[in-house]
């Protein structure tokens, strides 16, 4: 982060806004008003906050930045998926995706610029980790996508409520403090007032982070990206998370489901001739059977010539092995492939300059 930049006002925890305004000599209720402008009303400029005294707005504007994200590009897929490219104040960029579901929208947001997990099938891994996002930058993605959805509603999505998935760029549990604070802003009544049940954190299998997530007051959902059960194969596909024994990760996931009273999703990207055989399906079934899990099978989205998805018959065959073993398994086609917005296709792209 450029240390000459003023902090983002949305980096301040919602519960800290009263104290912040008191520190500036204002009455505490001004903090509640400010929270309303930042989250419920999503003010585009300090001057919009007309019920705050002008001199107070001036002090705030001098010390804090209201916006950490600038929309650099917006693409709409044939299937209705929308992708935003945002630039950050230090010139880096992130992508966030709006996915129309049957009744609602799902916002898929990023937790880091790049990613350190080095998964061989994922485009985000290509540039490595650039930096963590701050809580304000995480929260602002949601506000921008919400603003976009209000301007142009998605056909069939009358419901204004949205779900939130930490399945964009980065490993959210590797940026735990910002993740936890963003979740607090999402769920606080003075923030976005979301139910934690509408939020899902996806991890490549980060035991220390999973333990911390277990202690979070908000019972958000959990997805674990497994992608391979054989240790050597998993390490090859997911070098960093592959070093953690999968049984330990799945035990933690089971503990999570038990404590939250909510099933954990196991994500498995199916890659043609790599991890999509019946023996792999049987091994996966053995690991998850009898546990409070369900499995989402994601056909690999292409990012280069190296890996591709299995054909439809193989997808169904893999699913069938799981189902016969008593495991609930769904095939999930991720949308937005035509605009590189599907799972695994997000990266730190710069407008007009591909990295
Ligand atoms: N780092 C976290 C959050 C990112 S979620 C995690 O790994 O869970 C992104 C999801 O997309 C993960 O489940 C990942 O396994 C999957 N994915 C990555 N590359 C993909 C690709 N090329 N095609 C389909 N899914 C992919």
Structural write-up:
By secondary structure, the protein is of the alpha/beta class. The protein has 2 domains: about 10-65, DNA polymerase, domain 1; about 70-355, Aldolase class I (TIM Barrel), CATH 3.20.20.70. It contains 10 helices and 12 strands. The chain has helices at about 15-25, 30-40, 55-65, 135-150, 175-185, 205-215, 230-235, 245-260, 280-290, 310-325; strands at about 70-75, 80-90, 95-100, 105-110, 110-115, 130, 160-165, 200-205, 220-225, 265-270, 295-300, 330. It starts with 16 loop residues before the first helix and ends in a 24-residue tail after the last strand. The model is unreliable at about 350-355 (pLDDT under 50). The protein binds S-adenosyl-L-homocysteine (SAH). The site of S-adenosyl-L-homocysteine (SAH) has 19 residues, from β8 and β10.
Offer a few descriptive terms:
TIM Barrel, two-stranded antiparallel sheet, 355 residues, ten-stranded mixed beta sheet, binds S-adenosyl-L-homocysteine, alpha/beta, disordered C terminus, DNA polymerase, domain 1, elongated, 2 domains
């Amino acid at each position: 982060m450029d240390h000459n930049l003023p902090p983002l006002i949305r980096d301040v925890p919602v519960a800290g806004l009263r104290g912040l305004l008191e520190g500036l000599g204002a009455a505490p209720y001004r903090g509640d008003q400010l929270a309303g402008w930042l989250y419920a009303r999503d003010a585009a400029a300090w001057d919009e906050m007309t019920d705050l005294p002008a001199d107070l707005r001036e002090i705030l504007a001098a010390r804090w930045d209201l916006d950490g994200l600038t929309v650099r590009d917006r693409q709409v897929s044939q299937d209705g998926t929308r992708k935003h490219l945002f630039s950050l104040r230090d010139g880096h960029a992130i992508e966030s995706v709006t996915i129309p579901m049957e009744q609602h929208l799902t916002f898929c947001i990023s937790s880091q610029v790049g990613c350190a997990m080095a998964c061989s099938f994922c485009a985000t891994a290509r540039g490595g980790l650039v930096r963590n996002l701050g809580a304000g930058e995480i929260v602002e993605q949601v506000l921008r996508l919400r603003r976009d959805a209000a301007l142009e509603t998605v056909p069939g999505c009358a419901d204004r409520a949205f779900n939130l998935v930490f399945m964009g760029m980065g490993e959210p549990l590797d940026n735990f403090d910002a993740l936890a604070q963003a979740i607090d802003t999402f769920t606080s009544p003075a923030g976005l007032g979301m139910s934690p049940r509408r939020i899902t954190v996806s991890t490549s299998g980060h035991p220390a982070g999973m333990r911390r997530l277990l202690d979070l007051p908000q019972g958000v959902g959990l997805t674990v990206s497994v992608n391979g059960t054989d240790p050597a194969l998993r390490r090859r596909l997911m070098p960093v998370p592959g070093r953690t024994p999968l049984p330990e990760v799945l035990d933690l996931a089971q503990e999570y489901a038990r404590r939250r009273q909510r099933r954990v999703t196991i994500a498995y990207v199916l890659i043609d001739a790599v991890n999509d055989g019946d023996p792999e399906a049987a091994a996966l079934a053995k690991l998850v059977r009898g546990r409070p899990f369900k499995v989402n099978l994601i056909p690999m989205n292409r990012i280069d010539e190296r890996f591709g998805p299995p054909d439809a018959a193989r997808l169904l065959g893999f699913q069938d092995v799981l189902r016969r073993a008593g495991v609930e398994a769904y095939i999930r086609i991720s949308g937005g492939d035509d605009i590189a917005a599907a799972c695994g296709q997000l990266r730190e792209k710069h407008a007009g300059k591909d990295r």
